[in-house]
């Protein structure tokens, strides 16, 4: 048997005979030649079967292949500038592994519910594969950024006794005889981690039982949460814009074919370079008023507000210094104006909404106690968190980037449901 290869690496085998384990994506025929569109997960290649060269048996096997049939294909790799991958295979042999019958996802259009019910198969289609490759590249670039900038990766727990981001969307479960919740955010634990290791980041699943059915919300999503000791809000913003720049530029560099498969307008991404514009919540409210929105100071922005603000820029924009009343209990008030907090949301361009939420944290123990009372949080469950303020408290800041919203933006997708292999959404736990 000839050497095995994968489609991504056929360029190393030009002129050689190789075997590729693959599935049939599609097939065309023109009399004496069949064109097999093969996929193996790493890429796509056209296999050319010429009747006069392969003989009757191989020809008939090729003819019997149906969409998503699996096989080992043997053939010679040739350069082919007209194909997307740059190569083609002249098929010499086919060993069928499994002939598929009635594959449910055909090249015709399907409704989203149908595709979601068949998510386990839908993942095989070229666009879905491209999204998953870009998601993996984004994760790689994220870890590269933090690992090369002095951060240590730390893993906060998934099962927690307390809430980090408000009590309305907690996912409840029993922990033997106690009550527990799936984590909404690792932040509080990452603050402890920062006091131990300086600059840290986490990357893991987070859960919010949000009853909102929007194109930006998942019940289970992945978050990157860096936390930095001896770092103020301003310094954190600089880390954030450099971080997002690195992620977007890495995808541009390493995922050209996938962006093409998704028809992504690359010029929009090429533009994403630090520094990013900033606008205060106050100025944002004023701007919204000029645009006919009648939102009072003190109210949180919804998707239409965020989109209206983001439309003014061709880069992500930081909205800074929100009113304390609409933000989390741990955010540090602006010393010059305690009614607003030292925080920022990063809003992606093109209407993709908030991708980062971040802030400087309260480091004063008395103020923190007060906040627990105001937010009706039981101080006992947060004793360990108070200890971070009791023993060697320092100014510190951090932020959380939502992976799926970032993938949706970079890929140019309508909805976050396609950004994660098996989305957990309101009314969807299958497959
Ligand atoms: O703004 P959020 O709620 O901030 C936090 O959780 C902070 N504790 C982070 C920190 O400072 N360490 O969430 C952060 C990001 C949002 O900007 C958004 O991108 C994403 O997480 N996100 C969601 N993504 C998908 N589905 C949901 N239901 C999401 N909720 C938040
Ligand atoms: Mg937020």
UniProtKB/TrEMBL annotation:
Its main location: cytoplasm. It is an enzyme of class 6 (ligase). CDD domains: AsnRS_cyto_like_N (cd04323), AsxRS_core (cd00776). Its EC number is 6.1.1.22. InterPro entries: Aa-tRNA-synt_II, aa-tRNA-synth_II, aa-tRNA-synth_II/BPL/LPL, Asn-tRNA-ligase, Asp/Asn-tRNA-synth_IIb, NA-bd_OB-fold, NA-bd_OB_tRNA. SUPFAM superfamilies: Class II aaRS and biotin synthetases, Nucleic acid-binding proteins. GO terms for molecular function: asparagine-tRNA ligase activity; ATP binding; catalytic activity, acting on a protein; nucleic acid binding; transferase activity. Keywords: Aminoacyl-tRNA synthetase, ATP-binding, Cytoplasm, Ligase, Nucleotide-binding, Protein biosynthesis. One of its GO terms (cellular component) is cytoplasm. It is found in: Cytoplasm. Residues 134-431 form the Aminoacyl-transfer RNA synthetases class-II family profile domain. GO terms for biological process: asparaginyl-tRNA aminoacylation. The keyword Heme does not apply. Pfam families: tRNA-synt_2 (PF00152), tRNA_anti-codon (PF01336). It catalyses: tRNA(Asn) + L-asparagine + ATP = L-asparaginyl-tRNA(Asn) + AMP + diphosphate + H(+). Belongs to the class-II aminoacyl-tRNA synthetase family. Homodimer. This is Asparagine--tRNA ligase. It comes from Paenibacillus lutimineralis. The lineage of its organism: Bacteria, Bacillati, Bacillota, Bacilli, Bacillales.
